[in-house]
Amino acid sequence: MLMWLRMAPALHLIFLLIIHRVSSAGWGVNYSPTQLCALQNSTMTISCTFTYLTPGYQVMKVFWNIDQVYYDGDFVDLSNNSEYSQRLQYLGDKQQNCTVRLSHVTKTDEHEYFFRFTTNITEGRWIGHPGVRLSVTDLQLESPERVTEGDSVRLTCNSSCTLTDTPTFIWYRNSHTLTNIRDELNISSIKRTEAGHYSCGVQGQTYISPAVYLDVRYAPDTPVISINRSAVIMEGDSVTLICSSDSNPPAEINWFKGETFVGSGRIFNISKISSDDSKKYKCRARNDLGEKYSDPVTLDVQYPPRNVSVSMNRSAVIMSGDSVTLSCSSDSNPPTLNFSWFKGNKSLNTGRIFSISKISSDDSGEYKCRARNDHGEKYSDPVTLDVQYAPDTPVISNRSAVIMEGDSVTLNCSSDSNPPAEINWYKGNTSLNTKGIFNISKISSDDSGEYKCRARNKHGVKYSDPVTLDVQYPPRNISVSMNRSAAIMSGDSVSLSCISDSNPPAEISWFKGETSVRSGRIFNISKISSDDSGEYKCRYKNVHGEKYSDPVTLDVQYPPRNVSVSVTDSGQLWSDSVSLMCSSDSNPPAQNFSWFKENQSSAVGSGQSFSAVQSGRFYCEAHNPHGAQRSDAVTVTVHQGAGRNIIIITATSVAILIIIIIFVIISLFIIKKQRSVKSEGLTVMQNDLYSDVSQKDQAHDNPVCDPGLADEAPYETVNPRISAECRDAEEIQYATVQYHKNTQMKREEEEEQRQCDNIPLQQPDQDHRQETVETVEESVIYSMLK
Q1: Residues 6 or more apart in contact with residue 312 via CB below 8 angstroms
Q2: What confidence category does residue 757 fall into, taking pLDDT thresholds of 50, 70 and 90?
Q3: What is the 3-state secondary structure (H, E, C) of 716-755?
Q4: What gap in Å lies between CA 385 and CA 310, rounded to an integer?
Q5: What is the mean pLDDT of the chain?
Q6: Averaged over 368-390, what is the pLDDT?
Q7: At a CB cut-off of 8 Å and minimum separation 6, what does 629 contact?
């Protein structure tokens, strides 16, 4: 082994340039082994150790080189070569192990490999020489060229060099692993099933040798004939016979019909086979190792029935009561065993012979037989049995279940007879002089009724059962009748009847206006009221349509009710008269109104409105033709007087307060004393016009006595039960005076006493208490005092 060492010109180291096994003074590289044989595409490992015992040296770089390739003053590092960088793996270290691994080796990797290391001393560079020689081999399979079934065969797996590691061989046949682990595969008495592609490989390696086909020759097996159709062959079919025989080399095939040669080749075709081709066929397979015959195959050509016919023991004309025998015959393969008989399309019986004893008119018609085998069927031509007889009972058909007025109706009369019968039509018992088909165009309700037909031939006559033509139509002529005159009084009982013509009968519904109120032909209202007034109509509805009657108006009349009196000039606070209005609910409306003052028997006025100029309780009576009713009485209070100025108004108010105080002191004895009243006050009120809701109890419990509050509550309630302390304060609460320029003093004096006698002490309602009216007109002055 040779090692190169690059050193400084120190002469004492020159002798180290050539040292066997790279060994000098403890320096060296050892390869084990130095010759390697690797299988193509396998992974190869080069075991290597190195030493550097001289003190003061430290290994700085280790790498591998091939074929001592030198570049730029040093050996080339193999790991920098792109072809090796991904496959070369250094397994050693920088101490003493320099083992390396190379994967996926190919023939191009056959080189001498060297290990190189350098130290920290420039002159200390080492390469192991000689290196390790790598040989790469593939596997080749050696086999005999031709073998015959039963021979002994040896197969050998060869390589171009002896593999370094003792290999374990693996054998394959058609890619399936065999059990042999040696480089030779011995097969004694080879079989045809062992023919195939053989290859070998080494366990643990992916490389497999190219496959070699082992051809095993043998004589033909017994041929087998197959048919491209089922065993049953129909006449006219194309039949293909195939002869199959396993042999190597392939055998020559010959065909025989019986003992006669008919053709050669593995396939034998017969197009449009006939019954003449029904024979036994066989084939022969022959090669240079022997010959064999197949078992014979019979071709049974079959066909469906043909030439089917019917024969009869009588003439074609048959009278009712005769006996008739029909026979069916046919040609078929296999022979027909299934015969069926038909009258028209109706199945009758089975068997080759069909007998009819005492034939009747029902047996007339066309008869045929059907012959059937496994491959098909065929019908004979029909044979007609013409049995003559009198007409059967006719049947009327072609009549719609629902006939609408205006439809066209056709009636057909059917009767089974031989010879055919003459047809006549009747409505009831009247002949219509119509034959055959009976037509009614635009049928009407007058055509409703029972119809029948008559069938007659030379053997007899029969009538059909009658059929009813029920002509239907939607409702028509609808009207409403009432059990009373148009004038109806409240509380009467009223019955409305709905009348219409329809077929089928209609469903009847009643409507008030557009609102459904009831169903049924008769609509009863017991104890009718004004709420029942209105327009009523009925609706007839059946499956063909609907129709409404003209409306009938129920005018429910009643005497006056809910008579009431209202004040029509409530917006005017002060006036010398009060306008009253009388209103009522009545039918017909009340036209006559009378006015009465309570406790007086004679009327004080008439008309719907009335002007009251005096105080008192008034009511009205409303009259219509059915009665009269009076209203509740309303209280009207009128205060009359005139005021000239505010001083007179104030004096009058003080005087009234003094009179009220005296009235409280002397009770009821001097209440009717003469007073000095020079102002006229007018107050019109009904019973509840000045009712106090929220302030009454407060006025009783806490009377207002402070005169200073007058301006803050100008419309406080006048309370007749004010305590004496308040009366002593001479305060008038809510007194209102209206002055009229044109009022005559004479009238004032006449009415003065009466108004003082009748004036009530009332409390204004809450709305009045919250109002303050100060209006100045040309003829009227309003003011509020306390």
Answers
A1: 324, 325, 326, 327, 383
A2: very low
A3: CCCCCCCCHHHHHCCCCCCEEEECCCCCCHHHHHHHHHHH
A4: 12
A5: 78
A6: 88
A7: 559, 560, 561, 563, 584, 621, 622
